[in-house]
Design brief:
heterodimer, A: alpha/beta, five-stranded parallel sheet, three-stranded antiparallel sheet, B: alpha+beta, 16 helices, 14 strands, globular
Amino acid sequence: MLSLLRRRLRLATVTSRWPDVPAPLIDRAQPVFDPARCDLNGACARVCPVGAIVVDTRFALDRARCISCSRCIEVCPTGALAQGLTFAVPERTRSDLVEPRAAVATKGEELASRARHVLGRSLQVRHLDAGSCNGCDWEINATTNAVHDIQRFGIDFVASPRHADVLLVTGTVTRNLEIAARRTYDAMSAPRLVVAVGACAASGSPYPTGYASGEGAASILPVDVFIPGCPPRPEAIIEGLLLAVGRIVRAR
Amino acid sequence: MIETQNVAADALPETCAALVRDRHARLVVMTGTDERERGRGYGLYYVFALPSGDLVSIEAQVDPARPEFPAVTRVVPAAHWYEREVKDLLGVEPRGHPDPRRLVLHDDWPHGLHPLRKDFDGRRGVGRDPHPHEPLTGVRGDGVMEVPVGPIHAGIIEPGHFRFGGVGELVFQLEARLFYTHRGIEKAAEGAGVERVLFLAERVCGACSLSNAVAYSQAIENLTERHPGLRARIIRSVLLELERLYNHVGDVANLCAGAALQLGVYQGGVLKERLQELNAAVAGHRYLFSVACPGGVRRDLDAAAQERIRRESVAIESEFRGYVDALLETESFMERLVGTGVLDHDLADELGAVGVAARSSGVARDVRASQPYAALRPGMVSPVVRTEGDVRARMLVRVEETFASFGLIRELLHELAEVPPADLVTPIGPLPSDRWAMGMVESPRGENVHWVMTGASGEIARYRVRSASYNWALVPFAVAGNLLPDFPLINKSFELCYACLDR
């Protein structure tokens, strides 16, 4: 124990400087879209394995479905789709995750101010795996490591839904977890928020809906914030929680 | 080379038992198929590995009019979960199976519906049986109490239901109800294109994503007999070891969490994070998604990436050594691990344990040594084996393997530097019709097997994934006789994933 303690004392500060410094750029992030360069050739839509891109008279990318595989970037002949995101940012409504953006929703901001008022900007979070691949869950775990240190934002994880302000949902809501997911939400006391983490929880992608797999958290629960990504980086998860409690307000 | 033997369904137990007895074979995977559309019945495939590494497939057809066969489990216990799966998913009954309860399908699934039958429409939801039966047997007796836990747990972990039966803190029996995260991936793959299934394969398990992607890719490459070039194979091997590193280092840290040693969780977590950021920097993704593909890899490791891996691997290895030394000196922690959660050697061997769990109980199974793949050659990897079978052994096997992986990565990078830039993807072309092939990879958790069968027009007709998390079948044996508060520790020492078991 003493030698562990000695090692700890020798370690420099490892905490990330995000959000003051942006997260690193990585290749397998969601694409940046430049409408000026898009000629609607549709190559991206044909290779997208999860149907996140639709090209007809205009281009639309559903960031909730996108699994950041970068196939669209590889095949785009005009450079309209390119690398350049650190991560796709969380949004309050599903339609805000469709690029180019639809009309701005306002109800979310009202909710945020109410949540800010009631929850006092500090959050107790309960994680709920509703049928994920474990990737998002590991990234949620990573938010608690010394580098991402989610506690520096006044956010912490609790063992019971009864103690939680926020339900952080991963997974598509499988048939075998639907009842447990509803019960977990029902066990929370109001006011309560629901945050959907990752493509599965935000949209059901990439698994086809069917006998086993569902369409994401919003199919059974009122979702307040959608965090896109497969999986979202730890910074994206923290940002989604800050958005849920109104500590980030999206400028329009 | 795969040796194939077609036998009558009634001869399965005897044939399989003879293979185990006379040729020291072990069961690697078993799967069932619905081949009625192709004028046959239900197919049963038992794939064994010989000590030489060669594979033997024992195959039988079952008459659809009488969907049953004599259970192989009675003579080859390693078949027990496979045959229960076949019963649930295909409705083909293993006659005389010692434990015929449901496994994949949950209690409220209607009787008579089997998702992997071709006439079952997987795109539609299925109602719940209003009279679910109770599948857990439980323990009865004076002073016995049952402790139900889950499926939703207190930590940030995956869902499963555990029922502990015992007296006081002593656990007599653990029953696990799993398959909560069953997403229907195998059904979804049927009729889908090769690339679509690749992205599903990667998401069988987020934490062993690359191992699954490579095992699937190998199955496709074995079907088409089109294999990646040397550069792509070396890149695969380097990245697969990076996947092992962040998992093994993270697993040691998690073991500290199981014993409430926060300083250990903290320091190991920092190292794991550093390894995942290395993944992101050199392969574009913290979990190595979207890197491998059938025919090769989708990205190169250029000189800068190679140098970064070399530099970081030396620095992190040295940090990890200091971390492990400090853990080993922490007696209050190590004492919790000794003699806890012992998995018996014979049990591990007979029930088909793989990976760290097998090697910690004296069963030397490592696909990298027995069926070398990608850039690995015979002799490059020697299985790390211990015999105690307890939590400490599972920790120490991971520690030794971590150091071996650091060395292996540097050896592979040395080779990569000698290989000129080349095409990284060999075009695989269309799939042949009505054939099957498989790929095997030693994931951080153990042997992952992806088995792919094509249909009449070369489409994917059956996709079967057997991940190392099949070791779940062994965990209850390691828990019985231990104290209930030691369960988190035992569980974390196996560090199995639910998603890749449940699919």
